[in-house]
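hiii so um. not sure if this is the right channel but i have a protein structure encoded as tokens and i wanna go backwards to a sequence. like what aa goes where. can anyone help
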């Protein structure tokens, strides 16, 4: 389908699904996060939905008891997307993640997207905030795992643009070295 780079808030992306970098407890910002926009994907979702998604996520976690690398699904509540795929990048809030967990998350995201029959999905730079996984490592993993998917429109969402700049740089290197053409287009967020 295609690849898009979206500089902006993932909660504003029009896609069938968006991905949340989650913990296995489904904590997304608590009481304060409903009033103040805190930093991070989960916190943005929590703020924009006034806690509705966090409540639903906690119910899913009770049923599923997910481990790092797994994905649980909720509605997107009032967001433009239909679904939120919560990729468990860490067992508890504030913990570090690693590249192996992010790779498992990407595999789980792709599988869950197929099950839900989504055609478009917005994905942030998983594990690179609180999880402290280096942006460069995650960029190479994304190139390896996501950029050749033909059945799914992938939208890489990044509010700062830093991750998108790394992806663009790495894709330019690949084009020059091994003559593979990756096509992507940029779009600005609100």
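sure thing!! here u go:
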């Amino acid at each position: 389908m295609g690849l898009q780079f979206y500089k902006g808030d993932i909660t504003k992306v029009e896609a069938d699904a968006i991905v949340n970098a989650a913990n296995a407890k489904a904590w997304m910002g608590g009481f304060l996060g409903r009033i103040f926009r805190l930093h991070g994907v989960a916190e943005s979702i929590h703020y924009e939905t006034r806690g509705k998604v966090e409540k639903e996520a906690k119910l899913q976690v009770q049923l599923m008891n997910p481990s790092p690398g797994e994905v649980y699904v909720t509605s997107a509540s009032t967001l433009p997307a239909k679904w939120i795929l919560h990729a468990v990048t860490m067992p508890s809030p504030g913990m570090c993640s690693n590249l192996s967990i992010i790779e498992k998350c990407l595999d789980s995201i792709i599988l869950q997207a197929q099950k839900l029959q989504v055609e478009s999905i917005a994905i942030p730079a998983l594990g690179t905030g609180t999880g402290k996984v280096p942006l460069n490592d995650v960029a190479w993993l994304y190139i390896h795992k996501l950029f050749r998917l033909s059945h799914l429109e992938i939208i890489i969402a990044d509010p700062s643009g830093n991750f998108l700049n790394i992806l663009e740089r790495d894709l330019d290197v690949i084009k020059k070295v091994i003559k593979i053409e990756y096509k992507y287009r940029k779009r600005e967020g609100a």
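oh and The first helix runs from residue 30 to 35.
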